[in-house]
């Protein structure tokens, strides 16, 4: 009996420690103070640390967060990092060293290289997570958006994950990027909707994205050793448009996942296995809309029973505990026509976010630049949820999308057997660029505790013709070798560790 009581006490204390973590207690919103003639321009901090939400104007903050935004606090609720997809600033509103350009490329040049009003043009495309088991280290992930053709002609682009590890103990507490790298998708995809959920072990993180040019989900796994993946799951919702103005979210208990997007009158609801990172039991639910091509938002109640769909002019509630979830749909409210005087648009409901105070905050689009709507009691059914339109008034112009925050306080899942996270095998891809005479080698799942690897290019007889060392390896490496000395033919590329071949592949030089 004493042993059992001791175990129960440990579980209670563990959950208490988790409950005290306040990684999502300060959000940054607003516009940069680039117009000195108006006191309504500037940044605002949403501070949940007190008995009630405080809206604090922050004149010293210059980073705009108009469309996509991410932020994270330390476990005590003090802002540590926030980003607009172009740069990352620390909690003192200063640029993090090595994060001046976190998304290099044509898109950054078009949208971010503007001292007055820079932002990355994506929705729900950023996440900042604490690195498991590492004090004051964080993992930043965003979508790198690159157009394969002129955007307004084709709307087709390829995407990558752009990743950064940040150590806030460096630079006298101001922070520094310690690793920047790109994670490639298995194929070209179009989609955003990055969301995260704690692994069943209560420590690691599943990171999920779904594509809208296929029925594929992509998942990454963040552990104390770094990030692995992506892996595919081909049973996702059918999407057939280039539009990305939507949202995906996990329920606070981590057992459900919902997603929607702006060109649709549907929301997809699935069960989620926190142990494997896999989805099941897809349900496609309908709702009525007034117009296409507006923001769509979705959020779960704190008790995970209800979820709410913000469909531009309408707000709907669904009950996930019923057998027929479609029939549980309730129209909570419709747009009341409020807008700024003289402004030709009125408020539409957009991206949603559950706050640490148990309320759901809904960003506004078009009708007002200073007000959000709030679901004050989202655990209650129907009108009892106490939805108030444009009820949150900011001291400055606000943004259309709240910072997307996962449930940082979700503990281990004790209802399922937790498997040991596998040690994923090394992956290597090699290809040849005939115009530059360069052989590129992409290697993933390197063990960073090793100090040295070697990449070798051999001919078919085993003779080593090119060799390059990987010193202090990252989890993922891109290696370029000068192939100008090679004649046309097939060559063997080996990744070596102290003379031992770890993984090999072929490359054709022509």
Describe this structure in words.
The chain has 510 residues and is mainly beta. The protein has two domains: 2-393, YVTN repeat-like/Quinoprotein amine dehydrogenase (Methylamine Dehydrogenase, Chain H), CATH 2.130.10.10; 427-509, Sandwich (Immunoglobulin-like). Helices cover 5% and strands 43% of the residues. The strands form nine sheets. It has a four-stranded antiparallel β-sheet, with no helix packed on it. A four-stranded antiparallel β-sheet has the order 11-12-13-14, with no helix packed on it. The protein has a four-stranded antiparallel β-sheet with strand order 15-16-17-18, with no helix packed on it. The longest helix is centred in the first third of the chain and has 18 residues, at 2-19. The model is unreliable at 1-19 and 150-154 (pLDDT under 50).
What are its keywords?
510 residues; mainly beta; Methylamine Dehydrogenase, Chain H; 2 domains; four-stranded antiparallel sheet; 33 strands; disordered N terminus
Question: Helix proportion of residues, in percent?
Answer: under 10%
- In total, the number of domains comes to 2
The CATH class of the largest domain is identified as Mainly Beta
Averaged pLDDT, please? 82
Question: Whole-Å distance between the termini?
Answer: 74 Å
Please render the helix and strand layout as text:
Elements: H1 2-19, E1 26-31, E2 42-47, E3 54-58, E4 70-73, E5 79-83, E6 88-90, H2 106-111, E7 126-130, E8 137-147, H3 151-154, E9 157-167, E10 176-184, E11 195-198, E12 205-210, E13 217-223, E14 226-233, E15 247-250, E16 256-260, E17 266-273, E18 278-286, E19 296-300, E20 306-311, E21 314-319, E22 330-334, E23 347-354, E24 360-366, E25 371-375, E26 387-393, E27 427-433, E28 438-444, E29 452-458, E30 464-471, E31 476-482, E32 489-497, E33 500-509
Antiparallel strand pairs: 1-2, 2-3, 4-5, 5-6, 7-8, 8-9, 9-10, 11-12, 12-13, 13-14, 15-16, 16-17, 17-18, 19-20, 20-21, 21-22, 23-24, 24-25, 25-26, 27-28, 28-31, 29-30, 29-32, 32-33
